[in-house]
Amino acid sequence: MSTSKEILPEPSLIIDEERVVQAVSAINERRYNTLPRSRKKIMGKILSNRALPVLLSTVLFLTIVGCGNASTNVQSPENDDNIPALQAPTSETTYYEYGDTKVIVDEKGIPFKYLKKDGTEVRLDRQFIEKIQQEAVNSQEPQFATLIKIEKPPIPQPKPSIEHPVLINLPKDLVSERELEKRGISIIQPDNTQLFIREGAFGKGAPLEQFNATDRKLKIVILNGPVISKAYMSDPKYAPFRYLLDERNKQIAEYKTEQIQSYRDEIDYWKAELKKARSIGASTQIASAERTLLNFKRILYEYQNVFTNEEFISLMVGNSSDAAGLYFGTRNIGNELSTVIFVAAGEKKTPDDRILFSFDSKGQPLVYFSSFGHTPGLEPKATQTHPNPKDFLINPSATPSNPKSYPYEGQTAGLVLLHELMHDKLIEHRILQNIRPNYSEYDTDMGAMEWIKKGWEKWEKSGYKDDNGFYFIFQLPDGKGYILVQQPLVANTDEEIHT
After folding, report:
1. What is the number of H-type helices and E-type strands within the chain?
2. Pairing of strands 185-188, 218-223
3. What is the per-residue pLDDT for 35?
């Protein structure tokens, strides 16, 4: 007889966010303090502000479920007294089912195989997992054993509509490449899309107004990647621009080694905290220390065995607008002075969901479900044309009083492009006019959205006929159409559990 156990997210079982935040902040502070002074400014920003959201995207979705025979209850990590003893072995087989993946465990709760959607059977190293269980008992510490990756299905996207129609042909008011060069503008195109600029972009109050009748130069560098990184700049056409990212980028092996050592340090710290809590019999602190220690052991395992190169690049660079686009004022590019804008316009593979197997300090099996949520990249898609500002997500914590906050962040390549062009208006253009520059990311993001709002209002009031307010066009990766700027993708934030 087989019994299915459903893995359900329970809000009461979410790992202690505050304690994890404090721990990760400690990691970042120590890592920052070990950097050479010349690298602290830029690396401090990346490590302290970027690593935490990436980490918490996994941590805050963890669910702990008792793994044993069918009668084992969901376990609460809040108090050791709530964790039931191991059930007596039975002949009954238990399996955990998530989506189309079925994980089979034996009568002791040890996973020994799983079945994929296509029926393929994958065997797990039961002896190794049992060894980890014994290690948990001997050390009296929670231990992470293994994980199973579950590929996410794609999010169904709506079809083009009257409000969001895909263009089959390019409009007639495009500015040619030769004419752009006369105005000092050149576009370094990626291999997955092409950017086109309409004449309206040079009109009064428009994004490129400041490049009319001027000697200024502008290079728009578009990358086929989900973030700005030299990893996506191997083509020789990007060679003159690579040096701009020297301080921002580091080798994956160097980053991985640094992170692994940091998490080992944290594991040692929480081992000591667990020992201290046990010495005074503080049950709440014991449970909290065990929980956090296990989480860091899981993260260390993923750094050592799971993360792909692309995931490492995203972790290294970050997940905010600062990762999707960059603005550089006057720089030396190929023996000429030019403003440079970087825009990421590549796809990003959403990390797979994961079922994780661990043991508490008594050797009791635990099953975690970890989800990163859907994180689509910035590559243009057919449903993103003619953006409606109301469909963009707003960051409620962004305020004018915090000039480093982004109300809209880098939700689309089109919005990133407008954001960086607004930087030029508020910084370089003002400097040249002897006006005090405005470096506020908040003001820049709001200004970029104003251009989208004006374009949409014109489009809507015309009965969806006049699209001249959308100045930038991306070619679709398949070459079968074009979209105006970019509408955010439909995102799925709720996990569907199939039983």
Report:
1. 11, 16
2. parallel
3. 34
Residues 10 and 23 in one domain: yes
Q: Which of 431, 226, 214 is nearest to 325 (CA)?
A: 226
In a domain, 494, yes or no: no
Nearest to 453 by CA among 473, 465, 470: 470
In a domain, 403, yes or no: yes
Q: Are residues 271 and 330 both part of a single domain?
A: no
Identify residue 280 by its one-letter amino acid code.
I
pLDDT value at residue 337: 94
Which structural domain range is residue 203 located in? 177-249+323-347+378-484
Count of structural domains within the chain: 2
42 or 452: which leads in pLDDT: 452
Q: In this structure, are 55 and 189 located in the same domain?
A: no
State whether residue 4 is helix, strand or coil.
Answer: strand
Coil, helix or strand for 180?
helix
Same domain, 312 and 383: no
Q: Are residues 300 and 243 in the same domain?
A: no
Grouping H, G, I as helix, E, B as strand and the rest as coil, residue 198 is strand
Q: How many CB atoms lie within 10 A of CB 23?
A: 21
Q: Are residues 240 and 354 part of one domain?
A: no
Residues in a beta bridge with 325? 343
Give pTM, 2 decimals.
Answer: 0.71
Contacts of residue 444, defined as CB under 8 A and 6 or more positions apart, other chains included, come to 419, 422, 423, 426, 438
Q: Which residues pair with 223 in a beta bridge?
A: 344
92-134 pLDDT per residue, tens: 467 778 778 888 888 888 888 888 888 889 999 999 999 999 9
